Amino acid sequence: EVIDLGCGTGMFLDFVTPKVYLGIDDNPFYIKYARKKKRKNTISFFCQNIVSFSTGKKFETVLLVSVAHHLTDKSLKKTLSNLKREMVKRVIVVDATPKGFYKKVFIYLDSFLGGGKYFRSLKNISLLVEDHFGVKEKGIIEGKFFDYPYVVGER
């Protein structure tokens, strides 16, 4: 059972097939597209603010993939607090951090195109997660133009 916060077009489902999937994004165009490619009845998409959402039922895992850099520290803390209150067992935060020669260009483009501007280090993401969950695993997946810090937090 997975909640995908900031699910976009539901691309995560191209790679895995959870028993139950709930995709939440605040972009109505992404949600409309995601609903068109919905694969089964246990998959749902909702257009809702990810910071203040509520499901009313327990989910095992919540994903925040390439979402954290869209949120201020205050909003990310509120989201994680909400997840803890919702009795989520595990949260997985994976984000992108531009690097190298083109770092400033990528930061500008991401900000200009509405992508986000709150890029954080692995240490900063870990500190935000550990305020609400125990950190079980963390690391960095290295890419050519971006590094991808990730943190797995559990209750």
Q: What does it look like?
A:
This protein starts with a strand and ends with a strand. Strands 1, 2, 3, 4, 5, 6, 7 and 8 form an eight-stranded mixed sheet that branches. The protein has 155 residues and is an alpha/beta fold. The longest helix has 13 residues, at 73-85. It is globular and about 45 Å long. It is built from four helices and eight strands; from the N terminus they run ββαββαββααββ.
Label this structure with key terms:
155 residues; alpha/beta; eight-stranded mixed β-sheet
Rg is: 15 Å
The largest sheet, given as strand count, sense and whether it forms a barrel, is: 8 strands, mixed
Helix-strand topology string: EEHEEHEEHHEE
Q: What is the oligomer described by this structure?
A: single chain
Number of helical segments with 4 or more residues: 4
Strand segment count: 8
Q: Helix/strand/pairing class, anyone?
A: alpha/beta
Tell me, rounded to a whole number, the average pLDDT.
91
Determine the N-to-C terminus distance: 16 Å
Global shape: globular
* Portion in helices: 25-40%
Poorly predicted sequence stretches spanning 5 or more consecutive residues: none
Q: Please state roughly what percent of the residues sit in beta strands, choosing from under 5%, 5-15%, 15-25%, 25-35%, 35-45% or over 45%.
A: 25-35%
